[in-house]
């Protein structure tokens, strides 16, 4: 306590001391006038006619990779038609990037076109994801999260999909799971071109 009082007293004493100025008259530094030179316009480079070429992005034909898998799934024995199916967001396990929404939309379209299931609309699935705190771009999508989402939207089946590989060679694996039991009823894999 004494130290604190001593430090506070020393600070107050030093704060009250006037600062010392050297004795004698102070002369301001000399001002040297500079003659203005002729104004020059900024030099702009001539316009270039060449526009840089953006890097080529490979478009993915999801339909050709997904269609055979959906046909296999629909033809599997034990998979009942007319049931409610939730298409879960595609999980990206590749070293590159791609639009998960485009891949998921392509799967929904192919399943819809098969007329075998009643597909949960994507806006309903997205609202359920938001309610459950799941992101649309969730990179930690698991089968248990997919089944939980399926139970929330009262689906009978969940279609879980994973894209694996590198940016040059990718494949897609799909699994049809029963929501109530979690049993994998069908599984298929195909290359993505």
From TrEMBL:
Gene3D superfamilies: ABC-type transport auxiliary lipoprotein component (3.40.50.10610). Belongs to the LpoB family. Residues 42-55 have a biased composition (Pro residues). This is Penicillin-binding protein activator LpoB. It is a lipid-anchor. Its main location: membrane. GO terms for biological process: peptidoglycan biosynthetic process; regulation of cell shape. GO terms for molecular function: enzyme regulator activity. Residues 19-56 are annotated as: Disordered. It is found in: Cell outer membrane. It comes from Providencia stuartii. Keywords: Cell outer membrane, Cell shape, Lipoprotein, Membrane, Palmitate, Peptidoglycan synthesis, Signal. Pfam families: LpoB. One of its GO terms (cellular component) is periplasmic side of cell outer membrane. Interacts with PBP1b. Residues 1-21 form the signal peptide. The keyword Disulfide bond does not apply. Regulator of peptidoglycan synthesis that is essential for the function of penicillin-binding protein 1B (PBP1b). The keyword Membrane applies.
């Amino acid at each position: 306590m004494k130290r604190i009082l001593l430090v506070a007293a020393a600070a107050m004493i030093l704060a009250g001391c006037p600062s010392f100025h050297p004795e004698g008259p102070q002369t301001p530094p000399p001002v040297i006038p500079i003659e203005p030179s002729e104004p020059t316009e900024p030099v702009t480079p001539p316009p270039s006619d060449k526009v840089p070429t953006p890097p080529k992005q490979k478009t993915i034909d999801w339909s050709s990779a997904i269609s055979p898998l959906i046909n296999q799934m629909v033809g599997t024995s034990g998979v009942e038609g007319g049931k409610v199916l939730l298409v879960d967001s595609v999980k990206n396990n590749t070293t590159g990037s791609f639009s998960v929404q485009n891949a998921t939309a392509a799967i929904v379209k192919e399943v819809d076109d098969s007329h075998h299931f009643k597909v949960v609309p994507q806006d309903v699935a997205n609202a359920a994801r938001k309610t459950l705190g799941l992101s649309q771009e969730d990179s930690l999508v698991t089968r248990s999260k997919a089944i939980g989402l399926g139970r929330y939207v009262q689906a009978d089946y969940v279609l879980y999909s994973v894209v694996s590989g590198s940016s040059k060679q990718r494949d897609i694996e799909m699994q049809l799971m029963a929501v109530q039991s979690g049993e994998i009823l069908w599984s298929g894999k195909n290359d993505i071109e």
